[in-house]
């Protein structure tokens, strides 16, 4: 990934934030919790949000405009540098990132280079361990870029990074692909995959000819996340009408 960024080969870069996330923040806020809470002393405590595989950080800045203290994580140092430059240029631009709720205000945007599956980068976020994790995580074209054997670890790590009660927002893409035989990345990410991964975090995904197999009578894991909502995205620049959004609570 770093080599691709260094060579400026980034065909996945859409030059702006996810419309599906923007709509979720404005239309489904009741599922996400409060991005900020005002104290009696006039201070503001902000919820923490994470965007793994953040690239140039468009969605990090969008979450900050909604009031979150948002963190973008990328394994590519080149991408992190690009995100920091873009944030300095456009992060406070009301034309691109208007405040979603002026009463809540704008949160901060931060960027870190690190491996999502490692723990060392967490030390760079003050108070994260004490608070038990992130309040919101957004997965946009991150899971679909993972080699399929890494999927159980993705689910375990997402659960680990969320505080109890925190929410995971997933843009399900590409749902038009249904089988691993269709190749990737992006690898097939049908809704069934998210249900299996987050219903049994860390457990192997059952496939038949590359298609995810669900077992309706199977008891959910004690570690299962709870699905709060699932809908077809009205606006998206990923799957062109085939993307879905799901929200999960730890």
TrEMBL record:
Pfam family, any one: TPMT
A Gene Ontology BP annotation from the UniProt entry: methylation
UniProt-listed InterPro entries: SAM-dependent_MTases_sf, TPMT
Keywords for the protein's UniProt record, in alphabetical order: Methyltransferase, Phosphoprotein, S-adenosyl-L-methionine, Transferase
Any one GO molecular function term: S-adenosylmethionine-dependent methyltransferase activity
PANTHER family for this protein: CYSTEINE SULFINATE DESULFINASE_CYSTEINE DESULFURASE AND RELATED ENZYMES, PTHR32183
UniProt name for this protein: S-adenosyl-L-methionine-dependent methyltransferase
């Amino acid at each position: 990934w770093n080599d691709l960024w260094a060579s400026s080969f980034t065909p996945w870069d859409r030059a702006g934030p996810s419309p599906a996330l923007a709509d979720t923040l404005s239309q489904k806020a009741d599922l996400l919790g409060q991005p900020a809470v005002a104290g009696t002393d006039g201070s503001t405590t902000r919820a923490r949000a994470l965007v793994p595989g953040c690239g140039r950080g468009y969605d990090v800045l969008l979450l900050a405009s909604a009031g979150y203290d948002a963190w973008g994580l990328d394994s590519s140092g080149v991408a992190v540098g690009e995100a920091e430059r873009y944030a300095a240029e456009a992060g406070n631009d009301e034309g691109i990132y208007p405040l979603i709720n002026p009463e809540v205000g704008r949160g901060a945007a931060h960027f870190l280079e690190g491996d999502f599956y490692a723990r060392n980068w967490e030390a760079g976020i003050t108070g994260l361990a004490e608070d038990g994790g992130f309040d919101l995580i957004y997965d946009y074209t991150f899971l679909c870029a993972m080699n399929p054997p890494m999927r159980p670890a993705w689910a375990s790590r997402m659960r680990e990074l969320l505080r109890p009660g925190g929410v995971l927002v997933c843009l399900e893409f590409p749902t038009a692909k249904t089988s691993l035989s269709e190749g990737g990345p992006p690898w097939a990410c049908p809704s069934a995959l998210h249900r299996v991964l987050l219903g049994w975090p860390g457990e192997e995904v059952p496939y038949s000819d590359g298609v995810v197999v669900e077992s309706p009578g199977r008891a959910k894991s004690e570690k299962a996340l709870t699905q709060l909502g699932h809908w077809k995205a009205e606006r998206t620049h990923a799957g062109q009408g085939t993307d879905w959004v799901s929200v999960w609570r730890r």
